[in-house]
Design a protein that fits this description.
Elements: H1 6-12, H2 39-46, H3 61-73, E1 78-82, H4 85-96, E2 102-106, H5 111-123, E3 127-131, H6 136-144, E4 149-153, H7 165-174, E5 178-182, H8 187-190, E6 200-204, E7 218-222, H9 224-237, H10 243-253, H11 256-274, E8 280-284, H12 294-300, E9 307-312, H13 315-322, E10 330-331, E11 341-344, H14 355-360, E12 367-371, H15 377-389, H16 393-398
Parallel strand pairs: 2-3, 2-4, 4-5, 5-6, 10-11
Antiparallel strand pairs: 1-7, 6-7, 8-9, 9-12, 11-12
Helix pairs in contact: 1-3, 3-10, 4-9, 6-7
The structure holds pyridoxal-5'-phosphate.
Pyridoxal-5'-phosphate binds near residues 112 and 216.
């Protein structure tokens, strides 16, 4: 799938209505409320007949510019935003799932999302069915039994499994389900789930959209009819995006296209390099021909993303030695930043899960998640080379 003009859109889209004072950059409007001299105008804005802002928990000009930019990048009719990615997910599911409803999803969703499915929704008598990720027949069979929501994430965290969005959206539509896709890993530069038939797209803006690991945020885009009820749920429940965070995310998004191009490239080259390393057992990256669903990824993505993972001989012990030796990588529970970030899944994406739960998801305890930054590729590969070279040999022999 070929994309055009995404770089231009990332820079210019969505900002015009929020500019003020002739400034060329969207101002950070910290005002909690917005005043009106004219009581009738106030009323018209309050009931939504006239554009404007009333109170910061509902809307804000800086936040609105962020929403507009992600709306245009995902080619959606409507958008709303949240304080975090998890707020986007929990508010969306909270809007649409009630006692007695059924939701179908996959086992490999983000750790926090998985907790909503396994801990919170069952307590509210929502029936949750989690299928093996990438087992399209199993998902179709469960969806065919009927469900209110089909919730997908592709590529997944941390083993970058791929689900065929178009095929799953068709299955969801056939039973009248709302099809939701967490597009955090791909970003709108690499994948537009709405074009493939999804109804709603969720982002943790904290990751690639912001890209600088300095602001939390979430977004939801789709048809107005579906996004507005979630906006209403959020404005009442209060998981509002802060204007300062919205500004940082907006600024980050200006370079989204540039960053993603570089991260796609760096991740591919790191994955190819890792395949040649004796210490490495498995490399998971949708861009590799060895990936189970490389063909689907090639079809629905215009780039394979900045995320990969790999498992090492010697398991946790090797991880313990390897990661501290890297010079150009943060060891942190985050991803999608300009800096390369590494971490074991057991302390990052799936820290909420027990070792047994992780094993059931096919996540070895010695798996390393690698979020490629925008550094020079020679330095990233050189860094990995020196780290592998310095590993104690007995770890290898004992493996
Ligand atoms: C990080 C992440 C989330 C949660 O986002 P927060 O902004 O941390 O709340 C959801 N989905 C995916 C795929 C993520 O990587």
């Amino acid at each position: 799938m070929k994309k055009t003009n995404m770089g231009t859109k990332a820079i210019w889209a969505g900002e015009k209505d929020s500019l003020a004072f002739g400034a060329t950059q969207v101002p950070v409007v910290h005002s909690v409320s917005f005043g009106y001299e004219d009581m009738d105008e106030w009323y018209e804005v309050a009931i939504g007949n006239k554009k404007g802002h009333i109170y910061g928990r509902n809307t804000n000009p800086t936040v609105e510019a962020f929403e507009e930019k992600i709306r245009i990048l995902e080619k959606a009719e409507h958008a709303t935003s949240f304080s975090t990615g998890m707020a986007a997910i929990s508010n969306t599911l909270g809007t649409y799932l009630f006692p007695g409803d059924r939701v179908v999803s996959i086992k490999d969703t983000y750790g926090g999302t998985n907790k909503i499915f396994t801990e919170f929704l069952p307590k509210q008598n929502v029936e949750v069915c989690l299928c093996d990720t990438g087992d399209h027949e199993a998902i179709e069979a469960e969806v065919a039994k009927g469900c209110k929501v089909l919730y997908l994430e592709t590529p997944t965290n941390p083993t970058v499994k791929i689900t065929d969005i178009e095929r799953m959206a068709k299955a969801g539509k056939a039973v009248g389900a709302i099809v939701i896709v967490d597009n955090t890993f791909a970003t709108p530069i690499n994948q537009n789930p709405l074009d493939l038939g999804a109804d709603l797209v969720i982002h943790s803006a904290t990751k690639f959209l912001g890209g600088h690991a300095d602001a939390l945020g979430g977004a939801l885009v789709g048809a107005k009819e579906l996004v507005e009820p979630v906006y209403h749920y959020r404005e009442i429940n209060g998981a509002t995006l802060d204007p300062m965070a919205a500004y940082l995310l907006l600024r980050g998004m200006k370079t989204l296209s540039l960053r993603i191009e570089r991260q796609n490239d760096n991740a591919m080259k790191v994955a190819e390099y890792l395949q040649t390393v004796d210490w490495v057992d498995d490399v998971f990256y949708p861009g590799l021909e060895t990936h189970t669903h490389h063909d689907i990824a090639k079809e629905q993505m215009s780039g394979f993303g900045g995320m990969l993972s790999f498992s090492v001989k010697g398991g946790v012990d090797t991880v313990r030695h390897l990661l501290p030796k890297l010079q150009f990588a943060n060891r942190a529970a985050n991803l999608g930043a300009v800096e390369t970030i590494v971490g074991p899944s057991r302390t990052t994406s799936h820290v909420e899960c027990t070792p047994e739960e992780r094993a059931a998801m096919g996540i070895p305890e010695g798996l390393i998640r690698y979020s490629a930054g925008i550094e020079d590729i020679e330095d990233l590969i050189g860094d990995l080379e020196q780290a592998f070279h310095a590993l104690p040999k007995e770890l290898y022999t004992n493996a």
